Records
---
Amino acid sequence: MFLHGTSRINEQGHLEIGGVDAVKLGKEFGTPLYVYDVALIRQRARGFKETFEKHNIKAQVAYASKAFSTVAMVQVVDQEGLSLDVVSGGELYTALAANFPKERIHFHGNNKSRAELEMAIKEDIGCIVVDNFYEIALLQELTEQYRKTMPVLLRLTPGIEAHTHDYILTGQEDSKFGFDLQNGQADEAIKAVMETSGINLLGIHCHIGSQIFETTGFVMATQKLFSKMKEWKETIGYVPEVLNLGGGFGIRYTEEDQPIPVSEYVEVIIEEVKKQSAQLDVPIPEIWIEPGRSLVGDAGTTLYSVGSRKHVPNIREYVAIDGGMNDNIRPALYQAKYEAALANRMNDVKDELVSIAGKCCESGDMLMWDLSLPTARPGDILAMFCTGAYGYSMASQYNRLPKPAVVFVEDGDAQLVVQRETYEDIIKNDLKYNVALKK
Ligand SMILES: Cc1ncc(COP(=O)(O)O)c(C=O)c1O
Ligand SMILES: N[C@@H](CCCC[NH3+])C(=O)O
C-alpha cells in the first residue's frame, strides 16, 4: 500500500493522517468524510513555486479551484502565495468570501454569463481568460458601461491530443474551449481584442487536458504558441507579457500511474520557453500555470463506514459503504481507479477480494473493483486514497444524500472546514406547490 504525505500506520494499527487517527476522525465527524492533509497541499504548492524561483523565472502558479473549492482551501492557497483560478460566479464568490487577494484571481469559463463578467469587473479581479467571440462582445459592452479596463488572456486551442481520458481532453481541435490556433479564429480574436479599449491583453493561454503523465504535450503546446507569438510579433507587433500553459499534471491514484515530480514538468516548460524564445527572437514571457489535481489530489482521503455485503457465488463479493457516486463521481464518469484500505485494521492480512459498492440506486455506483482487503465487517472504516481533487467539488445530492463534511488535518489537529449537510439543507430551497395559486 502506498501512503501519501503525512499518512502512516500508528501504534494501534490505524491509519493516521496529519498526526490524527483516521478512526477517531470517523467517530468524531461521522462518515462519509473528506479528510485533507494540509501539509501535503503546502508541500505541493511550494514545489511548484520554488522550481520557478530556482530558475529565476517570473511566474504565477494559480490553483485551479474547480478541483476543490471551499473557503478554507482558498485560505491555504493564499497563505502559500499562489494565485487562484475560478470558473464560475460561485467559485469567485468563494474566493471573495475567503478574502483572497482579488488581483491574483483569474476567471475562466467557456460560457461566462453577463452577470459573472459583471461580478469580475466590479471586483477588479486580476484577469479574465477570454474563451470566445460572444465573451469579447460582452466585455466590450461591460467595460464601457463600468468605465474599466480589464486585464485579459486569450484562451487558445493548440490542436494537441494529450494522452488521457477523452472527457478530460481539452487542447484538441474538436473542443468546446478557446480560439483555434489553426483555422484563423485566434488571429480574428486577437484583432478584436486589440481593438477593444476596455481590454488590456496581458497574454495567451492554453490548457491541453488533465491527468497527463508526459511532458511532450506541454513542449508541443509551448512550441505552437511560440510560433504564433513570432507571427503576431511580425504581423501585428503584439508581444504577450504572459504565457499561461494551464494545468493537467498527473498524479498517482494506483500503482498503474507513474507521475513525474511536479518540478520536472515545470523545468521542462521553462527550458522549452527559453529555447523557443532564443530561437524565434520573442522575449521570455512571464510563465503562468494552473495546477488543480496535482495540488490537492493525493492530499485527500475519503473515509466511509462499511455496511452491507452481497455474495454472488463464483462471481463477486460486493461490500457496500455509506457513500458512493454522490461523493465521488469519477469511477462512474471516467472509470477512474483508486486504492483503499481499512483504516481501523491497517496491519491485518488481506484475505479477500471485494468490490466496493456505493449506496445510490444505480448499478453503475461502484467505487472500486477487485480490491484486496482484510475481511470487511460492518462498522469498519474504509479509507479511499487520493480523492482530494474533483471529489467534493463534483459531489451531488443524488438520492437526496447529504454532502459529506470536510476536515483539514495538520500537525496533529483536526478542524471541520465544511459541515455535513443535513436533511434540512437538502430541502431548504424546496417550496410547497400551492395549487390555489395556479392560473
Ligand atoms: C483551464 C484549466 N486550467 C486548469 C485546470 C486544472 O487541471 P488539473 O486539475 O488537471 O491540474 C483545468 C482542468 O482540466 C482547466 O480546464
Ligand atoms: N473533473 C475531471 C477533470 C476535468 C478537469 C477540468 N477541466 C477529473 O475528475 O478528472
---
Amino acid sequence: MADIIDGKAIAAEIRQDIAADTQALIAQGITPGLAVVLVGEDPASRVYVSMKEKACAAAGIYSVEHKLAAETSEADLLKLITNLNDDTDIDGILVQLPLPEHIDESKVLEAIDPTKDVDGFHPYNVGRLMTGNPLFQPCTPYGVMKMLEHHGVDLNGKEVVVVGRSNIVGKPVALMCLAENATVTICHSRTVDLPQKVAAADVVIAAVGRPEMIKGDWIKKGAIVIDVGVNRVGEKKLVGDVDFKAASENAAAITPVPGGVGPMTITMLLYNTIVSAKRRAAQ
Ligand SMILES: Nc1nc(=O)c2c([nH]1)NC[C@@H]1CN(c3ccc(C(=O)N[C@@H](CCC(=O)O)C(=O)O)cc3)C=[N+]21
C-alpha cells in the first residue's frame, strides 16, 4: 500500500511559517495585502474565493475581495486592475479564472503588474520561469513541488511524466521538474499509447481534468503519483484524475483528492503574497 502524501498537513505546516512571517512583517509596518477579483457568479469560483479569504484571515494577511457582476465590461475590469497596481497596500493581485466569454483573458492577465502577479500567469513571469530565474511561481505547480520536497523525493535524473499541457499546471510543472534535473515527458489528448508512457514514469503528475482517467495498472511499482485533478462527480463527490484505489496498489506514494494538491494551491498563493510583501519591505 502506498504512503499518502497529505496535502492538508503539509499546507498547515507551511501556513504556520507564513503566519509567523506575516507577524514579522507587520512588526516592520508592512501588512501583506492580497486583492482577489471575481467576475460573475460561478459557484465553484465563489467557493475557492471564500477559501482564499479564510486562509488569508487565519494567517493575518489583509485581503480585499472585488466581486464584479458577470456583465462587467473588460474596460471596467482593466480599470480596477490599474487601481490595484497603484495601491500601495496591495502586494498580490489574483483574478479568478475562468473569466466570462466577453472578456479577453490574456489582456487582463497582461494588465497585472508582474511584481504583484502572485498567480505567476503574466507572460513576463512565464518567461522568467522558463529561463530559470522565476519571480513568482504559479501556485498549483509550486504546491506540487513542495509536496515532492516534503516527501523527500529527489527528482535528479528521474523520469517524470506530466499528463496535461495547460498553461496553469502542465507546462509550468514540467519546467519546474526540468529545473530539478528530471527527464520530463508531457503527454496530452493526442499522445499515442498513454498507458505505456505513464508506465515508464518514476513520478506521474496528472493534470487533465478527467475523472479517474489514469488507471491503477498503468502505474509502475514504486512510482510517486501526484493527482492535480479536482473533478466533481454528481452532487458532492470530488475525485482526481487518477483511479486512487487501484493506483495505491502500485505506487510508493500518492496524493489524495480532496486533501492533496488543492490545499497546497491556496497555501502557495499566501506564500507568494508574503514573498511580494517582503520585497516591498526591502525597498
Ligand atoms: N486565478 C486563478 N488562480 C487559481 O489558483 C485558480 C483559479 N484562478 N481558478 C480556479 C482554480 C482552482 N483552484 C483550486 C484551489 C483550491 C482547491 C482546493 O483546496 N480543493 C480542496 C477541496 C475543496 C472543495 O471541496 O471543493 C481539496 O482538493 O482538498 C481546488 C482548486 C484554484 N484555481
---
Amino acid sequence: MTDKPIRVAVAGAKGRMGREVVKLLVQESDFAFVVGIDARLDGVDVGTTIGLGELGVPFVRDLERALDVYKPDVLVDFTTPAAVRRHVEVALDRGVRPVVGTTGLSEAEVEELARRAQMRGVGGVIAPNFAIGAVLMMKFAQMAAKYLPHVEIIELHHDQKLDAPSGTALKTAEGIQRVRAEFRQGHPDETELLEGARGAYVGGFRIHSVRLPGLVAHQEVLFGGEGQLLTIRHDALSRSCFMPGVALAIRRVMTLDRLVYGLEHLLD
Ligand SMILES: NC(=O)C1=CN([C@@H]2O[C@H](COP(=O)(O)OP(=O)(O)OC[C@H]3O[C@@H](n4cnc5c(N)ncnc54)[C@H](O)[C@@H]3O)[C@@H](O)[C@H]2O)C=CC1
Ligand SMILES: O=C(O)C1=N[C@H](C(=O)O)C[C@H](O)C1
C-alpha cells in the first residue's frame, strides 16, 4: 500500500516564489497540489496562468474558502509581509500546517504564532531562507561572531522586494546577538552627515540593504579584527535554490507538533 500524497495549497502561487513552488509540487509524486491562492486571481487554472499547461487546479482569491473547500494538509505561503500573519492564523485555526517563506514577521509575531500552533496542536515551519547555503552562512556567522564581535551585514536583493532589511539579515543578526556581548561599534562620536548612511542599528552593529535590478538574493557578513577581515557570503543565483528546503519542510511538517522558526531545525 502506498502513502497518500500530501495535499498542498500555495498562497502567492502567481508570484516569483509561488511559481517555483508550483513547479516543485507537480514534479514530486508524494505531493498533490490542490489549490493556488493569489490576491490577483480567482477561478482560472493555475497551470495555464503561470505557463505550465492545464493542471486542473484553480486559483482562489479567498484563503478561508480555499482551505475549507480543498482541505489541504499544508499551506505554503510566499505572499507579502502584510498578509502572512493572518494567513498563518487562518491555517492553524483550521488544522492546516503552515510552511512559510514570507518574510517581515517580527520575533514577537513568530512567538505569538508558535503559541497559537501549540494551543491548536498543529505543526508549522517559518523559514526566512530555505536555501541550504544561506542556512550555513547564518550558522558560520554565528560561530565567527563569538571570536570576531565587530560585524556588519550587507544584504543585496532585487528591486521588487518589499521589506528591508531582509528576513535573512534579521535572522542572521538574531543569531549573532545570541553570542556577541552587546557593545556599540564604531567611533563614539561618529555622526551621519546623511541620515541612514551607517545602516540600520541592531544590538550594537549595522545592517545595510541594497536594492538593484539584476540581483536575486545575496548577503555578506563582514567581520573585522586586529589586522584581519573575514567575509562570509551567500549568493542565491536562481530561486530554484530554495526548493529542496521547501520540499523538506513540506514533508517534515507532517510529523511536527509545534511551529519551528528556521530550516536549521529540520536538518540533521
Ligand atoms: N524563505 C525564503 O527562502 C524566501 C522568501 N522569500 C519571501 O517570499 C515572499 C514573496 O516573495 P516573491 O515571490 O518574490 O514576491 P512576489 O511579489 O513575486 O509574489 C507574491 C505573490 O503574493 C500575492 N499576494 C499578495 N498578497 C496576497 C494575499 N493577501 N493573498 C494571496 N496572495 C497574495 C501577490 O499577488 C503575488 O503574486 C517575500 O516575503 C520574500 O521575502 C523570497 C524568496 C525566498
Ligand atoms: O525577497 C526575496 O527575494 C528573498 N527574501 C528572503 C529574505 O527576506 O531574506 C529570502 C531571500 O533572501 C530572498
